[in-house]
Write a structure and sequence with these properties.
Elements: E1 4-13, H1 20-30, E2 33-41, H2 52-62, E3 69-74, H3 78-85, E4 89-94, H4 97-113, E5 118-123, H5 133-141, H6 152-166
Parallel strand pairs: 1-2, 1-4, 2-3, 4-5
Bound molecules: 4'-phosphopantetheine (PNS).
4'-phosphopantetheine binds near residues 41, 77 and 106.
Length: about 170
């Protein structure tokens, strides 16, 4: 594998829950960089359905076949975490232009707080452009089929867990 030697990057997100869109970005990053830390971080404007521990466990399960991926969680500033682990970049997936303004604001803020970490945007794969964790939760909570949106290894537990939450 020709990934860039000795470069650690962080893929942060709420991952509530992880979708095939997230996993695609994580996999692509793992093919470019020597170490990818998938970080469950806290988005204070969202009320999560899954606990941090559940989200970490799901991410560990879906990335267990990717040797250079680690999963962690952090309840603090992303910029402080990137400093702590010496990450050279923050990797984010961009679905549509509507993501851009918010993501660009976060990228500039994170660059100000830690000038040593660049934010890099990976374009979502065409088939995942419309996909979001909140859409998946909405579909599952109304009994819809989310088979194509959630990685196979965690599909049943995610569906059961979302049912339990509503019941
Ligand atoms: O998947 P999301 O909810 O779009 O991810 C957003 C997330 C969690 C990456 C962002 O809210 C974040 O970085 N939170 C950590 C706290 C922080 O550093 N906030 C300031 C960002 S400029």
């Amino acid at each position: 594998m020709n990934n860039i030697t000795n470069i650690t990057v962080v893929c942060p997100g709420s991952f509530d829950p992880v979708t095939v869109g997230h996993l695609d970005i994580i996999r692509r990053a793992s093919q470019m960089f020597s170490k990818v830390i998938v970080l469950v971080s806290i988005n204070r404007s969202k009320k999560p359905s899954f606990t941090v521990e559940e989200r970490v466990a799901m991410l560990k399960k879906v990335t267990e076949d990717i040797p250079n991926v680690e999963v962690d969680s952090y309840d603090g500033l992303l910029a402080d975490y990137t400093k702590k682990v010496g990450a050279k970049a923050i990797i984010k997936g961009l679905r549509a232009m509507s993501d851009f303004e918010y993501e660009f604001q976060m990228a500039l803020t994170n660059k100000k707080l830690n000038p040593n970490a660049e934010t890099m945007f990976f374009s979502s794969s065409a088939e995942n452009m419309y996909l979001s964790s909140s859409m998946v939760k909405l579909i599952a909570s109304m009994g819809g089929d989310v088979t194509d949106f959630i990685p196979k290894t965690i599909l049943n537990s995610v569906v059961e867990r979302l049912k339990r939450k509503d019941g």
